[in-house]
Specification:
This protein has 11 helices and 2 strands, in the order H-H-H-H-H-H-H-E-E-H-H-H-H. By secondary structure, it is mostly helical. It folds into 2 domains: 2-100, Rna Polymerase Sigma Factor, Chain: A; 104-158 and 185-258, Butyryl-CoA Dehydrogenase, subunit A, domain 3 (Up-down Bundle). The longest helix is centred in the N-terminal third of the chain and has 23 residues, at 23-45.
């Protein structure tokens, strides 16, 4: 019963804000949906360096939430929560990137790993093993694993960013989280989005089984890295390595397909 009452209250707040321009209703909507910011910030904080405060992520995320409330169209065939989470993530990532706290050496190492993966996949016609990657990079396997952890702990790159497109306002929106206006489709854009979705789906399907499972549990089941470690019977740092490898593989594959 409480859920129905809350839904009715939210619907009325949306009506007052969008139809009547009631700024008080806008503020109430931000407060009502603020737990989404805490949720997204908490998930992102677990994969970032210790010096990045969750409180800072929350403040960045609130900007994304306010932007989402302002831009959301009631006519969209999508839940606001889904739309808002994408905006909140985007605002946090944009702010972290603007601070440019990721060491240049880490960025360069990530690019080296992407290039090595693309080169080996082209030659082997399969995903390379850790040993093959290490040999291609002229390091031992332990150093390769250490690089993956360093990249994971120093970047905000996520799989979500692999399938984003710009909406009509120029903002980045996830293809997984949004649907086009059914009443006014843009055929060319729909074709581009479908093609990109197919590319990502194909790239994920070609991942090694363990990496594919990590991607599924993290992005589709919303498990944390620690929870995934418990499922797989490995440490959280090992899951972090698997996640980073999967994302770098996907980036290299999509880059090569777009070139």
């Amino acid at each position: 019963m409480k859920t129905n009452v809350k839904a009715i209250e939210l619907k009325e707040l949306w009506r007052r804000y969008k139809r009547l321009g009631d700024e008080r209703a806008r503020e109430q909507l931000v407060v009502a949906y603020s737990p989404l910011v805490k949720y997204v910030s908490g998930r992102m904080a677990s994969g970032l360096p210790a010096h990045v405060e969750e409180a800072d992520l929350i403040s960045y995320g609130l900007i994304g939430l306010m932007n989402a409330v302002e831009r959301f169209e009631l006519e969209r065939e999508i839940k606001f929560e889904t739309y808002a989470i994408t905006r909140i993530k985007g605002a946090i990532i944009d702010e972290l990137r603007s601070l440019d706290w990721v060491p240049r050496s880490v960025r360069a190492r990530a690019r080296d790993i992407e290039r090595a993966n693309a080169k080996l996949e082209s030659r082997l016609h399969r995903a390379p093993t850790d040993e093959e990657m290490a040999a291609e990079l002229h390091v031992d396997v332990e150093d390769f694993h250490a690089s993956l952890l360093q990249i994971s702990n120093s970047t905000v790159s996520a799989l979500d960013e692999l399938w984003t497109v710009s909406d009509s306002s120029g903002d980045q929106v996830s293809l997984l989280d949004t649907l086009g206006d059914a009443d006014a489709p843009d055929p060319s854009r729909a074709m581009d989005e479908t093609e990109l979705k197919d590319m990502v789906a194909d790239a994920i399907a070609r991942l090694p089984e363990r990496e594919k499972l990590v991607i599924a549990l993290y992005y589709y089941e919303n498990l944390t890295l620690r929870e995934i470690g418990e499922v797989l019977g490995v440490t959280e740092s090992r899951v972090s390595q698997l996640h980073t490898k999967a994302v770098l593989r996907l980036r290299s594959r999509l880059s090569s397909q777009r070139d």
